[in-house]
Amino acid sequence: MEPLKNEEFNILVVEDDREIRDGIEIFLKSQNYKVFKAADGVEGLSVMEQNEIHLAIVDIMMPRMDGVTMTMRLREKYDFPVIMLSAKSEETDKVIGLNIGADDYVTKPFTPLELLARVNSQLRRYTKFLNKGGAVMQDERVYTIGGLELNEDTVEFFADGKPVKLTPIEFKILALLMKNPGRVFSAEEIYERVWNEKAINTDTIMVHVRNIRDKIEINPKDPKYLKVVWGVGYKMEKQP
């Protein structure tokens, strides 16, 4: 499958502030992205039903339906990346957003170049995620730890034989840890390996790890696989 070009990506901007919404549209269009817009979560979900979307930029605080509720709804059907926009005063909502399926967040006020860097980073990973699904590989890269099985070539993950739906970011984090069982990775190293950029805010790693545990562990509060090494980082525990 050939890599997608910018003009082949459809980006949805969901923001109730018209100036911010239009400003993001202008900048993304200057980079040859195709842009769809919505003023709240209700409109955003409607746009998704009618168009193929590859990435959504979603404000947290919006009328009718906020960004957290919208992200929770869209994750029932879609796995494309979601970047949340939040004010500094919305720290709690931001963490909730990551917990229910957002992939990244940008704090207002932000520069267009900062947002573009996040968009490009997420789309690079999502393109690889899509390409894996369409290819038939001769030698599958399958990693197994206890009852967990991760297949990098088919982009599938199973826990005790049952398929688990992961976001692209969650899959990348699990792949890194499962390929290196027993090795402790700091939050900074996980961020830099998964995002392919210098760690800016590692709080997102803690949230993604908690989200992964909820999906793969029988008892997330007493995890069997994904362990915290206090003051150091995270590791995938070797299994007998």
Compute the gyration radius: what is it? 18 Å
Helix content: 40-55%
Q: What class would the helix/strand composition place it in?
A: alpha/beta
Q: Stretches where pLDDT falls below 50 for ≥5 residues?
A: 132-139
Reading the helices and strands in chain order gives EHEHEHEHEHEEEEHHHEE
Q: DSSP helix count?
A: 8
Overview in brief:
With 240 residues, this protein is of the alpha/beta class. The chain is 40% helix and 19% strand.
Tell me what you see in this structure.
- With 240 residues, the protein is α/β, with parallel strands linked by helices.
- The protein folds into 2 domains: 128 residues, Rossmann fold, CATH 3.40.50.2300; 95 residues, Orthogonal Bundle (Arc Repressor Mutant, subunit A).
- It is 40% helix and 19% strand.
- The protein has a 5-stranded parallel sheet, with helices on both faces. A 4-stranded antiparallel sheet has the order 6-7-8-9, covered by helices on one side. Strands 10-11 form a two-stranded antiparallel sheet.
- β10 and β11 form a beta hairpin.
- α2 runs parallel beside α3, α3 packs parallel to α4 and α6 crosses α8.
- The longest helix has 22 residues.
- The termini are far apart.
